């Protein structure tokens, strides 16, 4: 089976490419390297290109017969999406439509879409299942929800089957230590905490200590990147087996507070982590935790690395070895 991985040089995409190659799939990566790294693509065929270049897509789909497409290429910063919505709608929505149109034109019917918990907006109930109301509160979340809705229409009209995977907080790194998180700029909590531990950052700032949570800091559901990749494989197999289009919330079901992340990182690294307590960050709900029972029941998904210590240990090995910290 031949899988096209769009955005395969990025954080989650590169882990996915490695997994697909290990499992014996033929892999083609399409990435414009705007946020990814060529050396993160450890297998398959690499094509440098952008979804905005229709001739690149046409050439790709004409020369290869894909059995499925996974789409990881998107901008991911919520704050930036508020300041630059045009960038987000252009890249995350319109360019995704180009990809879908190429799939329809070349009769490729199986699509796995990287969606997000941000489609839900302010939580109405926690843990959040798939039926939770969708009221995204920023252009990033709105764009992802638009694509999910577009996919529903494309299925009715063009018989394109899709699984939307709504990630909660993707975290951790390749357990073999070869790949990890390399965002530029980095805004995510765990890599920032680890950089404060190495001294690359003078400190980590805790965004708000007055939330309605046991220790006053925000609670998030950190899900290991390897477990996310496994869910993608199961989702693709589900479609190949004739399963229906679906959407799944992917988290490990356990929430951890910002303070717990910092304390666990201190234990794992054995380093002091200088902390500054700051103001709340706009748009952060107090608690985001996934109810992933549907993915477990329907896909047979069983997250493996559910404890925070393991997630942070893998991220730490990357940060101090091959990661930016080791460069
Ligand atoms: N956070 C923080 N300091 C930072 C970065 C993040 O306190 O420097 C908090 C943030 O407010 C949120 C949690 O850590 O409650 C996870 O944030 P991250 O940006 O990693 O992921 P998000 O939840 O925004 O997807």
From TrEMBL:
It catalyses: UDP-alpha-D-glucose = UDP-alpha-D-galactose. Its EC number is 5.1.3.2. Pathway: Carbohydrate metabolism; galactose metabolism. One of its GO terms (molecular function) is UDP-glucose 4-epimerase activity. Pfam families: Epimerase (PF01370). GO terms for biological process: galactose metabolic process. Keywords: Carbohydrate metabolism, Isomerase, NAD. InterPro entries: Epimerase_deHydtase, NAD(P)-bd_dom_sf, UDP_G4E. NCBIfam families: galE (TIGR01179). It comes from the Bacteria. This is UDP-glucose 4-epimerase. Belongs to the NAD(P)-dependent epimerase/dehydratase family. Homodimer. The keyword Isomerase applies. Its cofactor is NAD(+). Residues 3-251 form the NAD-dependent epimerase/dehydratase domain.
